[in-house]
Amino acid sequence: MTESWLDLPAARVDEAARQLLGWRLTAHGVTVRLTEVEAYSGLGKDPASHAHRGMTGRNEVMFGPAGKLYVYQIYGMHLCANVVCGEAGVASAVLLRAGEVVEGLELARTRRPAGKDRDLAAGPAKLMQVLAIDRAANGTSVIDGTGPATLSEPDGPVGLIEAGPRVGVTAAHDVPWRFWIAGDPTVSAYRRHVPRKKAEQPVRGRTGR
User: Fold this and answer.
1) I need a surface site. Which of 32, 39, 153, 205 has the fewest CB within 10 A?
2) d(CA 141, CA 164)
3) Cα separation of 175 and 55, whole Å?
4) Residue of 6, 9, 91, 11 whose CA lies nearest to 56
């Protein structure tokens, strides 16, 4: 029998990420079927993880217990949500990258207008917008009904799962810990992180004649 993602150790966070595909996340009147996720370890071997260098006030939720949301802000404006996995005291989490709105479609459209419904939650910040999840959800449970968001099991087979490099990370670029449901139109576009170039300094010196 396959172990549940809730029971897997932090060292197997990539397996937990795969298992979360197809699960349904419900919050504030909208339900999204997860179609794309990314795994992040906290064992000192994943420099792309917020917990790579140890516990801080920001990342302490990542250290468990499993089944809680780790919510943080990026670029000073966008929110992202992760589901914490692994045993308590050892950090690991799965970033919720994209999903399909399967319930509350009209409400989702008012929260994030998009040209096509498949684009409503096709990215981690977009997913947060349609579910109306904010930073107050950080540290809340997604399994016992006490938090604003609740995860429920898939209602059928998930299908083929593909894997590839994670998106937008500044380290460990090519670790194949991004997982998605093959062929699903709600999966976000892959963009490898490109470091910003430093502005060239003018060369100062004598000018030849």
Assistant:
1) 205
2) 28
3) 22
4) 91
Report d(CA 154, CA 150) in Å as an integer.
Answer: 13
- In terms of C-beta density within 10 A (0-12 exposed, 13-18 middle, 19 or more buried), how is residue 106 classed? exposed
In a 3-state reduction of DSSP, which class is residue 96?
A: strand
Kind and range of the H or E run holding 25:
strand 24-27
- Rounded to whole angstroms, the Cα distance separating 99 from 61 reads 23
Tokens 């898939």, located at residue? 154
Task: Name the residue type at position 125.
Answer: A
Whether the per-residue pLDDT at 205 is higher than 80: the answer is no
- Paired with 41 in beta bridges are 92
For the full predicted model, state whether its pTM sits above 0.85. yes
Q: Are 127 and 120 in contact (CB under 8 A)?
A: no
Which burial class, exposed, middle or buried, applies to 2 when counting CB atoms under 10 A from its CB (0-12, 13-18, 19+)?
exposed
DSSP for 29-50, written as a single string: TEEEEEEEEEEEE-SSS-TTST
Number of H helices, E strands in the chain: 3, 8
* Amino acid occupying residue 18: R
pLDDT for the residue 197: 54
* Rounded Cα distance, 83 and 69, in Å: 5
